[in-house]
Amino acid sequence: MSLRSKIVSTFKLHGLSLRSDATACLVEALDGLGNEDIKGWLDQFIQIIQKKPLKPGAIVRDVIESVIEECGVGAGDESNAFLVIDAFSVPRFLYNNDRKKFIQDTSPISIHSTADDKARLFCDRYTVLHQRTLRHELFSVPVLGSGTAAAKYQLQPVEYLLSSSAQLGNVLVFGMIAQIKEGSYFLEDSTGSVEMDIGEAVFHAGLFTENCYVLAEGVYEDKLFHVTALGFPPPEPATYSRSHLGNLNFFGGPSAACCKSSGQLIALEKNLADMAIVTLSEVWLDQDVVLDKLRVLFTGFAEAPPAAFVFCGNFCSMPCGPGYYRALMDGFKTLADLIADFPSLLEKTRFVFVPGPSDPGPGNVIPRPPIPDLFAEHLLTKIPLASLATNPCRLQYCTKEIVVFREDIMNKMCRNCIRLPSDDVDLPTHLVKTLESQGHLCPLPLHIRPVYWTHDHSLRLYPLPDLVVLADKYDPFTVKSQTGCTTVNPGSFARSDFQFKVYFPFKGDIQDSKIP
Fold first, then answer.
1. In angstroms, rounded to a whole number, what is the distance separating the alpha carbons of residues 246 and 243?
2. Which positions ≥6 away from 20 have C-beta within 8 Å?
3. What residues are paired with 509 via a beta bridge?
4. Which of 23, 55, 104, 172 is the most buried (most CB within 10 A)?
5. d(CA 336, CA 237)
6. Coil, strand, or helix at residue 411?
7. Per-residue pLDDT tens over the stretch 9-29
8. How far is CA 407 from CA 313, 357, 404, in A?
């Protein structure tokens, strides 16, 4: 059977027809591949096409070209394997409750937002977590006649409590913790708010702060919700999320489709199986001892250059004051000269710089723009593969999705926690549980950690990425959760005896490293 006939018959089996120019486009793209590869590509094409809003009639060439571009057939090489995604360019998806699907919001976004944008921030967080929770096996409503067991729990809105004058026992409500009156905690959702009594409540794993979304179980009586148990909504593995969300690219980047569906990137990742990504935090470039250790680090990797070095701030040990800006500029200049001494790194390795809290930038609101080019002008000129990134930023390496966030989040979460965990589980595990359950990098109250209201979606962890780098002053840790997401903290390079983390994307392994 000819390639053209195979393409036409495969599409007909799925109820699809192609125009002659669309068929010719597919023949051109798949010509020269083996039978198994052709079958795999056609199946992947059809999966993507079936999720697109097609016009009646035969599929035209433009649709096929866009699908081929999304899948990356025959395109790309090692230079396309690594992408740095700006936080301000992350696509914004809004959940449509009527259609039960996410729709991309393409309207222009400004950081000069209105009060409505602040309200929409909390509504969007609520709808994302609510639809995810309702899909969980404990809460999902079975399809009539499917023979599936009934849901074990039924979520109720806050208005269900407010509309009752009688006592309600064993009620489970999903909502946000808020302190509307000083000293009193309320549970709030889109239908209203109710005061809670959490004095006798059992807190499950996690760090509970204001503005966190929780599942509260208890008894409602005399306009007061007596909570007996408080927990976070269950996190969802990324593979399960994408099975419901389709091939949408929530992560960001040039492709309209998720990188996980790109056969070319999958093949490229296998070819680059030994590649690594090195992460360091608090790299003080004004300290001679730090620069000496970086030389040792570069020497060790010179023979087998990694895919990238990710440096997180602060990049200067001194506080902002006289001489600070000059010290920072000199530090970047010295680093550029140091990297230039290693031609293999200069040619093959990407260098990403994520700003810290004390690095120069406009205010203390996240996401933060990159460090101004002025301070790293010599570095950007001398190191062609250097990138000044936002905080947080997103990195895509082949099919792996990586989120990097430079923030002392552990300290802030513990300081603002309603009740600190008293069990034997270590704090990093509680922190990771909190962030994954909230689907957000920073679930703190906005007065504790200000956020640009219209860019809050860039802080989402939904679907969960493969790796989250929390560059924190806290002791280094690595937590691999059951969701398949790995969270690491490389620790302070300058303060913690020059420790750092090495990530191997193909295997998903993390290596704890230290320079003696």
1. 6
2. none
3. 504
4. 23
5. 40
6. helix
7. 999 998 899 999 999 999 988
8. 10, 7, 10
d(CA 133, CA 152): 13
Residues 329 and 316 sit within 8 Å (Cβ to Cβ)? no
Phi/psi at 287 (5° precision): -105, 125
Main-chain dihedrals φ then ψ at residue 514, nearest 5 degrees: -155, 140
What is the rounded distance in angstroms from the CA atom of residue 419 to the CA atom of residue 415? 10
State both tokens at 72.
């990356």
Across 461-487, b (16+ Cβ under 10 Å) vs e yields bbbbbbbbbbbbbbebbbbebebebbb
Question: What letter does residue 459 receive in the DSSP assignment?
Answer: G
Closest C-alpha among 216, 240, 190 to residue 462? 240
Q: How does strand 93-96 pair with strand 101-104?
A: antiparallel
Report d(CA 286, CA 282) in Å as an integer.
Answer: 11
Crossing angle of the two packed helices 20-30 and 35-50, in degrees rounded to 10? 140
Look up tokens 């792996």; give the residue: 400
One-letter amino acid for residue 139 of the chain: F
CA distance 281 to 474: 11
What pLDDT, in 10s, does the model give residues 235-292?
999 999 998 887 788 999 887 778 887 777 888 999 999 999 999 999 999 999 999 9
Cα–Cα distance measured from residue 392 to residue 90, given in angstroms and rounded to the nearest whole number:
11
Phi-psi region of 170 (alpha: psi -120 to 50; beta: other; left: phi over 0): left
Q: Give pLDDT tens digits for 314-360.
A: 999 998 888 999 999 999 999 999 999 999 999 999 999 999 999 99
In contact, 371 and 388? CB cutoff 8 Å: yes
Question: Helix H segments across 72-212?
Answer: 115-134, 158-162
Side-chain half-sphere of 244: how many Cα atoms within 13 Å?
A: 19
Residue 218 in contact with residue 246, Cβ under 8 Å? no
- Which two tokens mark 75? 């395109």
Whole-number Å distance between alpha carbons of 118 and 125: 11
Please give the biggest Cα pair distance in the chain.
76
Q: Is 69 exposed, middle or buried (0-12, 13-18, 19+ CB in 10 A)?
A: middle
Quick one: how far is CA 274 from the chain centroid?
24
- Residue 51, strand partner residues: none
Quick one: which of 383, 379, 381 has its CA closest to 285?
379
Radius of gyration of the CA atoms of the chain, in A: 25
Helix/strand/coil for 429: helix
Q: Is 455 left (phi over 0), alpha (psi -120 to 50) or beta?
A: alpha
Identity (one letter) of the amino acid at 405?
Answer: F
CA 373 from centroid of its chain's CA atoms: 26
